[in-house]
Amino acid sequence: MSEQRLLRKAVSDVSSEIEKYTALESSTVDDQLLKQAECECCGLKEDCTTDYITRVRGCHCGIWVCGLCSEVVKERLRRAPETAMQDAVRFHREFCQKYNSTTRLNPKLSLTCAMRDIAKRSNENRSFKNWSAPKIARSSSCVPKIDFKH
Ligand SMILES: [Zn+2]
C-alpha cells in the first residue's frame, strides 16, 4: 500500500469522526433550544423552545396546545369561567377530533377557519352588548354551512 493511499484513508477517517461529533453537538444544542411540539388538540406541529413548551404545558394541565387552540380554550374559559382548565382543553380537543373526522376537504385548514370563526363570533357578541350599530353582514365563511333541513 502506498503512503499516499494510507494518508488519504487517515484523512477520511478523521473527517468522518469530525462529522460525527458535529452532528452530535448540533443535535444536543437543538434539544436544548428547539423541540418539535405537537398540539394535542389539532395536531399542528411547532418548533418551540423547551422553556416555552414547559410554560404552555403548565398553563394547560400538562397538555401542549398550539397558539390558536390556546386562544380558543381561553375564550371558552372567558365565556364560562366556572369551567376547569382541564375540561376546557378536553372539550376543545374533542371538538377538533370530531371536526377532523367529519371534514373531508382539507381538514386542517377548515379547522383553523372554524376556530377563527368562534373567536370572531365571540368578539362580535361582546361588542354588540355595548354598541348598537347596524348589524354588519358577514361577507363569506370558509366553513361549509350545515343544512339541517332534509
Ligand atoms: Zn392546536
From TrEMBL:
Pfam families: DUF1677 (PF07911). InterPro entries: DUF1677_pln (IPR012876). This is DUF1677 family protein.
